[in-house]
Specification:
Helix content: 40-55%
Radius of gyration: 26 Å
Number of strands: 14
Shape: elongated
Number of helices: 12
Structural class: alpha+beta
Distance between the termini: 76 Å
Strand content: 15-25%
Order of helices and strands: EHHEEHHHEEEHHEEEEEHHEEHHHE
């Protein structure tokens, strides 16, 4: 068998000899032969494909331990692992980008012209059984700093959603610097997931969770499932969250249109909830005049976005807006529990 010296192999796969020696020590890429007298390493041309894969994965920033796992998989399974890894990288990058934008805004303020305007939230929360369901498995909460909606499912769905929100209640009084608020939310979400697992007792129950935490100048978001957060700003309605649902995945892949998703038989199935997947975490700059809506799918599933915008625009205050939104869900048949929180930045 023709052998390549370590130098020739390094040039062919674009890895340095130093990297090849490291990967040999880690048993990630072993040479085909090692000279027993000189210790010199030799490789075969058949090893180039694995070496190039290792080089590509390192350029992605993948840790060596995970590269070892990927290289041991069949190509299709390896592709799925790379897809999952990159999705996590993009999520973490988006989180850091939002935090960086907030810090740039904060640090760019001229020290001699400190803004003395104090912003706060004016809010209303309401959870309604709807017109069809025998019980309410939703929980809605609004306080000085914390806004939250959770939509439970399964035999203990109601207690699950309640436990998730209750686990976050301490955030309403806990002060955290803007730079630490996402860490605080992440830890609180873990505690909420543990509380839900304790409630479910092994049964197929769980809950969504969508919550916003007020810092005084920004809102930090934690979100998992298909409850939603919307922002009404300057007359336009913007969806802040991305559904973790089967139909949303099909829309993202181009296999389903939003119009088709509205009547899809699997539209209630989740890809992940609080106990089965990591939540999204982001930081949003707040402006005076902003109006936020958090709601379960009992509202957004039957009331289209254009109608939500009309009702949120027409509501003189959060109380009026919440009442109008619940009434619209009832007018659409009220097939599910309806929970919503409306909060104004004033």
């Amino acid at each position: 068998m023709d052998m390549l010296t370590i130098g020739a192999f390094a040039r062919a796969c674009r890895l340095s000899p130093k990297a090849l020696r490291l990967y040999d020590e880690l048993e990630l890429l072993r040479p085909a032969r090692v000279d027993p007298h000189t210790g010199y390493r030799y490789y075969t041309a058949g090893q180039l494909e694995r070496a190039r894969l290792v080089a590509w994965l390192r350029r992605l920033g993948m840790p060596l331990a995970r590269i070892r796992e990927v290289c041991a998989l069949a190509p299709r399974e390896a592709a799925e692992e790379v897809r999952a890894y990159w999705a996590r990288v993009e999520s973490e990058t988006a989180l850091r980008r939002d935090l960086a934008a907030h810090l740039v805004t904060h640090l760019s303020s001229h020290p001699s012209r400190k803004d003395t305007t104090v912003l706060e939230l004016r809010y209303r929360a309401h959870s309604d059984r709807g017109l069809v369901r025998p019980a309410n498995q939703d929980t809605a909460y609004a306080g000085t700093r914390l806004l939250a909606v959770a939509d439970g499912h399964g035999p203990t769905g109601g207690p699950a959603s309640g436990a998730a929100v209750e686990a976050l209640r301490f955030l309403d009084t806990a002060q955290a610097p803007a730079g630490d608020v996402l860490d605080l939310l992440q830890d609180a979400a873990r505690a909420a997931a543990e509380a839900v697992l304790g409630i479910s007792g092994g049964e197929a129950s769980g809950t969504t969770l969508t919550a916003l935490l007020w810092t005084g100048s920004a809102l930090a978001l934690v979100h998992v499932g298909d409850s939603r957060a919307y922002l009404l700003r300057d007359g336009g309605l913007f969806r802040v969250t991305h559904d973790h649902s089967v139909v949303q995945s099909l829309i993202d892949e181009g296999r389903l249109t939003p119009e088709e998703a509205a009547s899809h038989p699997r539209r209630a199935l989740l890809v992940k909830d609080l106990t089965t997947g990591a939540p999204d975490l982001r930081l949003h700059e707040a402006r005076r005049g902003d109006r936020y809506l958090l709601c379960s799918d009992g509202l957004h599933g039957v009331v289209p976005d254009h109608r939500l915008r009309e009702l949120l625009t027409a509501g003189a205050d959060p109380d009026a807006a919440v009442s109008a939104l619940v009434a619209a869900a009832h007018a659409a048949g009220g097939p599910d529990n309806v929970s919503c929180v409306v909060a104004d930045v004033v």
